Amino acid sequence: MNLTDGYVAAAVENAPVKELFPGIRLRSLWTGDNGAKAHVLEMDPGTSWEGLDVHEPGPEEVFVVSGTFNDGARDYPAGTFIHAPAGSSHIPQTTTGCTLFVFYPEG
């Protein structure tokens, strides 16, 4: 919904859903004019990204909304903020299931 003052709002439950891998869903919330993007990523328990997730062309900002997220090396519980610089990589996975807010400031 576009508001008269330039704000843009999106409800997660109304956002289009794209299944990236079995049990891993992406809900696109917003795309900016400069290519910046905001998403919600839902991962079912016991799921893992297929292959390496490389952060290009820019960084990835993640906030763990619920559950426990694992980057292939460590666990991040709900309430954790993660900054992954451009060029870094990881293998997103979870044993418990998790919901993430993911922001790409440079697309």
Automatic annotation (TrEMBL):
Domain ChrR-like cupin, chain residue ranges per copy: 10-103
Lineage: Bacteria, Bacillati, Actinomycetota, Actinomycetes, Kitasatosporales
Protein name according to UniProt: Anti-sigma factor ChrR (Cupin superfamily)
Record SUPFAM superfamilies: RmlC-like cupins (SSF51182)
InterPro entries recorded: ChrR-like_cupin_dom, RmlC-like_jellyroll, RmlC_Cupin_sf
One Pfam family, short name: Cupin_7
